[in-house]
């Protein structure tokens, strides 16, 4: 199987550790090489870990409602750090209050995230999306 | 009687110590100026004859030596991200007893190439990427190191997928290489021991003769390690029977800080940040010292603080610092001078401890207060060993350490606060470190006697 490395963590001042452990377990079981940074992870830490580990994806969780503030600018910083085109996923309770998910998704897409997942998403859903995206990229790389 | 001769070729002094191979009894110590320019054995002979007249011992069953003469083991460390593999590379080199003259991160440039040519390192350490991770950077940097027009061996401890490529690039350019396990095989995992072993082997094989130390080799069986590595060995052995500890070696030009501790959080609800810490950790403050680097102390803490602690005016202090900078051999004679040396020492130790120790930070989250720890928590460290000529001479070692530990300036620092202070008054740390491999019982005995 090709090298499929991802960096996982809970962004910002968020200390929700349980969901992070579940995702770490599920993604590892699915065969990915997971670099798990745990909770309270800054944008810089996500990026540094992705550089050293040569990751193809950064998967960001946020459970405490401040995700929108914490995630802003992550794509730009990735570009700046030479991680151009790295897959960016985000999921959890990423905004405050009950807002229509389509609008939230749109906002995070505009921030440069490839995939956005709402509250209560099962790990299987994310795994399926990751495999789809990884495969598409591997095929593109082969043809290039 | 079976006496072992231990030699420490320092940058200024060559120190000789005679210890019993079985009981660890200390027979005597002597020292003389290091004579590395002409012939290092001259200074050694002088120290030896003094030791002979002191103890009457002429026969030694074994002779072991360590050295920090001729600039010590000068290394450069290269990694990818500054806070990750570049930092891991630096820690590996420091832990092996090297002096890290420069750390490079990311892709190195032509300017870096020229700088390395000027720096003329003894060894280069090439790291970067976790195993299976980034390999482009270390391969690029191997190319840069290969082009440097200077002769030095390269220890390659990068992403294992790239090691072979790096080695062949360097070998093609005629550089000697040693490949090693990655210093950071997985994210957040530090693996520096194999690299440290490689550095020490290279030191033995190549550096000793390159530094003109081999002239002394007819007199001794082996120069087995750089001096800081010997000190580290001694401290690690000491901690195995007295518990976790720290040490401060306050020199004229640099201050070395050691901690042999886990350094895990002692406060509940603390999240650890950053690269994991090595159990046996050494940091070197190149700008902090009692003579050549006295300016560094006033720069770090401000001359008002030094003057206030010494109870002198800033003018008096500045005059003294200018004087000791020009003539590092000068000793404090008057009470005023002694007080200024005391203040310099206490604040040098304080600065060294603060820089070595981790920090804790309060983070206000929507769920309440959380704590983030970076580096080692040394607040509960129970013992601190002091060594170095200045501290031994001044005879106020305990007061110096207590003044440093009780600073109120840095509440976020996880420096030791209430450690018991022990002074290495007979200067036996490096000698005991040399004994650890071949005469562990003797080493244990003398450490137990002198430093507990």
Quick take:
Chain A has 144 residues and is an alpha/beta fold. Chain A has six helices and five strands; from the N terminus they run βαβαβααβαβα.
Topology, element by element:
The complex is a heterodimer of chains A (144) and B (452).
Chain A: E1 5-10, H1 18-29, E2 33-36, H2 43-53, E3 57-62, H3 67-71, H4 74-80, E4 87-92, H5 101-110, E5 115-117, H6 123-143
Parallel strand pairs in A: 1-2, 1-3, 3-4, 4-5
Chain B: E1 3-9, E2 13-20, E3 26-33, H1 40-55, E4 62-67, E5 74-78, H2 85-95, E6 99-104, H3 110-119, E7 123-126, H4 136-147, E8 154-156, H5 163-172, E9 177-179, H6 193-210, E10 222-226, H7 227-242, E11 245-250, E12 255-260, E13 270-273, E14 280-285, H8 294-301, H9 303-310, H10 314-326, H11 335-356, E15 359-365, E16 368-374, E17 383-387, H12 389-394, H13 397-405, E18 420-423, H14 429-435, H15 440-451
Parallel strand pairs in B: 1-4, 4-10, 5-6, 5-7, 7-8, 8-9, 11-17, 13-16, 17-18
Antiparallel strand pairs in B: 1-2, 2-3, 11-12, 12-14, 15-16
Helix pairs in contact in B: 4-5, 7-14, 8-9, 8-11, 9-10, 9-11, 11-13, 14-15
How much helix, percentage-wise, in residues of chain A? 40-55%
| Domain count of chain B | 3
Structural class from helices and strands of chain A? alpha/beta
Averaging pLDDT over every residue of chain B, what do you get?
Answer: 91
Strand arrangement, largest sheet of chain A? Answer: 2-1-3-4-5
Give the CA-based shape of chain A: globular
Would you tell me which CATH topology of the largest domain in chain B applies?
A: Nucleotidyltransferase, domain 5
In DSSP terms (H or I, runs of 4 or more residues), the helix count of chain A works out at: 6
How far is the first residue's CA from the last residue's CA of chain B? 25 Å
Query: What's the story with the biggest beta sheet of chain A?
Result: 5 strands, parallel
Strand content of chain A: 15-25%
Largest sheet of chain B: 5 strands, mixed
What topology, given as strand order, has the largest sheet of chain B? 3-2-1-4-10
The SSE order of chain A reads EHEHEHHEHEH
Superfamily (CATH H level) name of the domain at 71-99 and 107-144 in chain A: Cobalamin-binding domain
CATH topology of the domain at 71-99 and 107-144 in chain A: Rossmann fold
DSSP strand content of chain B: 15-25%
Secondary structural class of chain B = alpha/beta
- Uncertain spans of chain A, ≥5 residues at pLDDT below 50? none
> Poorly predicted ranges of chain B (pLDDT <50, ≥5 residues)?
none
